[in-house]
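Blinded run. Sample ID left blank on purpose so nobody reads anything into the name before looking at the predicted structure. Input follows.
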Amino acid sequence: MNLKNSLHKKNKTLVVIGGGAAGFFCAVNAARMSPHLQVILLERSTKLLSKVKVSGGGRCNVTHALFDITEMSKRYPRGDKFVKKSLHHFFTTDTIEWFEQRGVKLKTEKDGRMFPVSDSSQSVIDCLMNEANLYGVEIKMNSEVRSMRYENSEVISMRYGNSEERSMKYEKSEVRSMRYEDGKFLINLSNNIILNSDYVCIASGGAPKTSMFQWLVDLGHTISEPVPSLFTFNLHSAKPGSAKHPITELMGVSVEKARVKIEGTKLAEEGPVLITHWGLSGPAVLKLSAWGARELAAVDYLFKVHVNWLPEENANSLKEKFRNFRFSESNKKILNHNFGKLPNRLWQFLLEQSDIHADMRFADLPAKKENILINNLVDYTAEVKGKTTFKEEFVTAGGINLSEVDVNTMMSRKIKNLFFAGEVLDVDGITGGFNFQHAWTSGWIAAKTISFLSPDNESICDVE
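Blinded prediction complete.
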């Protein structure tokens, strides 16, 4: 049952641009908090909540089990101060409670990531869609914003068909322009339908090129140049005539704990590493890519990466162990003595790279090959030549300059009643549910502010 349409007459209108996590959260909460508010959500593609669907391998990493705001804010390479202030309005605990109140109970994994107990992102999608249906959010697909203008004095002639015609035309409409006149936003769709809105929340996500933000620049906002964040490293083979790095033959092998460092920088991360058919991935690499997003873009993703497969060890500690093994385990094959319980395929690979054959014993190990093996264990070096991002999970560093947005309301400091939420802002977190938490937080703050501004005596604001 649609509670809003059955019980309330709509006085004001909110248009939310973007059908992702932040846009949906703003739309459903604004509709719930302000029963008299008409809420329209425009999505430029044919897919809603696409990142929610694919996140965490299709399980949706809803948030992260961090319950200290200062510590949480440290997981955002850009926008940490902004996020720290925003989290005082809607924090991890609020996210957990919000979803659990609607039947989506979350669980915590050992690395702190939180997922639905169903292990399915569909649980989150269904929850948000149910809220949209319950509170009468109108969802319009294939509605892309191409440009947006702010004009105080322009007179605009508007033409509308009847309500049935408008509903049909919305389904395949792109937004060509948006204007602001006499306290109203006028959003022009590609088929000449004009939406008249009192409030607009832009939650259109990140973009790979500055030019894709031009419609926001035209409004008077400035953009921090977007660059990719959360990407994997493509390894380059130093062997002439070979395009693939030899370690990629181990694709699918993962190491639970390794330390990855980028040469010539202070960038280093420790955590799981996954070997793929193009290079290195896994949480440690993805976190490193987030922290180094701008530095690595500046060198065109050409750099050297150093991996310590045994982060509890160093060259000196391993030398001491080898010295002891020469006496206590002299007749044992090196192959059968996996130092750090590394995956067998990786251990064999490192031995091969050190020119140590399968039958070699500790007693027969030349000092030179010992040094090479130690170096491969604690300082394996490879050349990175390029990156790989995933279209559905693409995250950018960059977006709307945060000085132009009021963190306590998510309202533009330049245009009254214009709001922003999610990745369109110059905020991005490391992997682990932090980007979704920012989406929920910023979307909720925008929704709460709009509910206060809309003249509705029945507004409901249930989370402080």
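Unblinding after everyone has recorded impressions. Residues 434-453 form the longest helix (20 residues).
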